[in-house]
Design goal:
Blueprint (H helix, E strand, L loop, with lengths): L1 H85 L4 H38 L23
Helix pairs in contact: 1-2
Length: 151
């Protein structure tokens, strides 16, 4: 009788040990998946930071280039306007033409600057979005087997 009880207890302990080992293996697998997901999130965050940095540099380069071209354009345009304004016969007409030129020029360069800022604002919004991993919420649970029990 004692031998039968001992045998049954041995079988019960063996089954429990087997189930515990299966749960441990499932937990180890889930830990590996979680570590991979965390690594992927870190990499995505690093890439997003690099893109944001490059985007900021690009925005500054375009803005600086536009400002430089604008200043050079104004400087070059002032030469003929200055000459024509020094002649009494063409002075009044030249002042009107210069004002029109300056308004158009300021509008064009202002538009380029505004477009640059708007495009980079959109880019910042796109870069700032957070990544979504499939099953991120499920990572807290152990994988389920038949009957809803952990594997």
């Amino acid at each position: 009788m004692i031998a039968v009880v001992a045998f049954l207890l041995t079988i019960a302990v063996s089954v429990l040990t087997w189930k515990a080992r299966a749960c441990l293996i499932a937990a180890e697998r889930q830990q590996l998946r979680n570590e991979a997901a965390l690594s992927e999130l870190r990499l995505a965050t690093e890439i997003r930071a690099q893109i944001a940095s490059g985007q900021a540099i690009a925005e500054n380069v375009v803005e600086g280039g536009t400002s430089t071209v604008r200043a050079v354009h104004k400087g070059i345009a002032s030469i003929p306007f200055g000459i024509l304004e020094s002649i009494p016969v063409t002075r009044d007409t030249t002042r009107v033409v210069r004002q029109i030129h300056d308004v158009i020029s300021d509008t064009v360069y202002g538009s380029i600057s505004a477009t640059n800022k708007a495009l980079h604002q959109v880019a910042r919004g796109a870069v700032g979005s957070s990544p979504k991993l499939d099953g991120a919420e499920k990572s807290k649970e152990l994988p389920k087997g038949p009957g809803g029990k952990p594997k």
